Known about the structure:
Layout: H1 13-36, H2 44-52, E1 64-65, E2 68-69, H3 81-89, H4 97-101, H5 110-115, E3 123-128, E4 131-136, E5 139-143, E6 174-177, H6 188-193, E7 199-203, H7 207-211, E8 218-221, E9 226-229, E10 232-237, E11 257-262, E12 265-269, H8 278-285, E13 291-295, H9 302-305, H10 312-322, E14 326-330, H11 344-356, E15 371-373
Parallel strand pairs: 5-6, 6-7, 7-8, 12-13, 13-14
Antiparallel strand pairs: 1-2, 3-4, 3-15, 4-5, 9-10, 10-11, 11-12
Helix pairs in contact: 8-10
Amino acid sequence: MILLSKPESPVFPGRCFLSLRFLSFVLPLVLCASCLFTPPPFSERQWQQEVARQDPADLYAAHQQEGRFFNPWMPEERRGLLSVLRWRLTRAGTYTPPEESYLPRLIPDLAQRLAQLPAGRDILVWIGHGTFLLRLDGSWWLTDPMLSQRALLPKRLTEPALRKEDVAVLDGPLNVIISHNHYDHLDSDTIERLPEHARFFVPLGIRKLIESLHGGEVVELDWWQRRGVDGAELVCLPAQHWSLRLGVGRNTSLWASFLIRSGKTVVYFGGDSGYFVGYREFGRVFADIDYALLPTTAYHPRWFMHYPHLNGEEAVQAFADLGARVFVPTQWGTFRLGDEPAGYPRLDLDRIIAARGLPEERYLRPELGEIVFLDSGP
């Protein structure tokens, strides 16, 4: 008898090909998913070295090409949808209960207190987030007015010190500075509620949006442009940031910081910015800055936020670069825009000041609605 062996299973090349195609499709997805749950490495030292290599001359270079603005001293680090998703999937809850719960105190009845102010006093009031109210030589200045409950999506955690219905108390000349078009700095409803006599000073590309919301005069300024306003001088200066808004293309409008020189008082309003060579240059060109209003918010995680936002250490360094007399932190305590809680930047700043033994009197940390008299010294 002849025993016949069992025939081998036939080989189907098509099945192998499909398996390879399946693996080539799934494997990148698995690898991508693992990356999304792992934050990328970030070196503070390398970042500082990169900033140190920036050339101050680039602050004066062309910064618009094909209808879009850019930072000529350092290309913007684009963060696409995958980067945003990676940030959201790797958020870490590493904050203590006090850090999670701390918020600034609100001093009430600001409108009534403003109405009772003695004439001729220069003041500064923190309204909330990047919104400050200043009176300089009899004129009101309002920065990045944001009095609404939401910045598109993020909800306020603290009430603004001045309500929309109370802005009528600002009955003298009212000059409004807007640093860029992000929703936490340019709020449509707040602008619509401002008094009819308000005048707006904005970076290039924002004029039409403001004119669609308010009938007041709108002046567009490019970096380094100067404008005389009510006997004061307003200077538009660079910042390291970007712009975007629904229905508006990315970086089709400019972002900026501003300097106000009014009488004997010089105020620098930093808008929104990361740390860059501009602070050293501003300190060189404007050697008499009194008050530096610098942003300290949304800086965690550092791998994602280091380019457009200052952390506490960088804000202190920027203050030193500017050579200003008094530091005033802005943008903390209102919205949670980064990983860190809204009140964390204030506690972080307090720790830095204490650890370095910095002079407390030079670091002004007002509460919401607190009236600071600028003509009384720091």
